[in-house]
Design brief:
The protein is an all-alpha fold. The protein has a domain of about 45 residues. It is built from 4 helices and no strands. Helix 1 packs antiparallel against helix 2.
């Protein structure tokens, strides 16, 4: 058990992941002052569905428009 039930070798590694846990976890990463930490959340975006993106649109927008303070 856990957030990631298993890493898929093929297909979407986010398939089967509880979105009620995933979205808040990614939102927290996107607010981190470290650009490296924020970048780690970007991996998930490559596997997002339209529904995922719609659910996190504001968090994604904020992360893009407000640079990480420790990135400069």
């Amino acid at each position: 058990d856990g957030l990631l039930p298993g890493l898929a070798e093929e297909g979407n590694p986010l398939e089967g992941v509880d979105r009620k846990l995933l979205h808040p976890a990614l939102a927290k990463l996107l607010k981190d002052p470290s650009g490296r930490t924020r970048g780690g959340a970007a991996y998930a975006f490559t596997h997002f569905t339209r529904e995922d993106l719609a659910a996190m649109a504001q968090e994604v927008y904020d992360a893009i428009t407000k640079p990480a303070p420790h990135y400069r």
